[in-house]
Specification:
mainly alpha; 3-stranded parallel sheet; about 50% helix
Amino acid sequence: MRFGNPTLHGETAAINNCSEILTSEPYNLKGPEALKAFQDLSLYTTAEACPMCATAMRWAGFKDYVYGTSGKTLTSQGWPQLTLSSSELFEHTSSLPTETRIVPDILAAETDPLFRWQYDNSGRCPPGCRRARADDAEGSRTCIPGEESEEDLAAEVAGDVVKGAAKGASGIWSLLSVFFKVAAPVADEL
């Protein structure tokens, strides 16, 4: 909640941006015309929307609502969620003048890992972030902005050694593969 607005989720921001575009140059649609235009549009998102955003999508009247990672998966990874699924919520919107088709789990195998890093210490941080240390101010997040240091990489390799030893020979070969991927660029600089 970088801006202190708990309603500023990706889906509501997308709806606001789309409304702005439709009612500005070159389209210049009036409010009712912009709402009608939503009926020909699909909203794509990496994860299932929260109930607030799913409701906003229904009020907007999108033709399709397409998402990857499910709310259940987010919850299992530690993300705080309201547990009312989009499909459950949509069951209670039949009196609205439009219908929005839900297309769930599209590319979920690709989107699920995108959410693992924040609340799961075993998930890898995205590029441009590093694992938070106990003394970091951002105690509620496991990844924070910043590049990984040599110390972070050494800790990751040491963790892989422990995991590799526990897995036996196959784990050691995996560890060596990771080590050479990390060490090769460093050796090139020497």
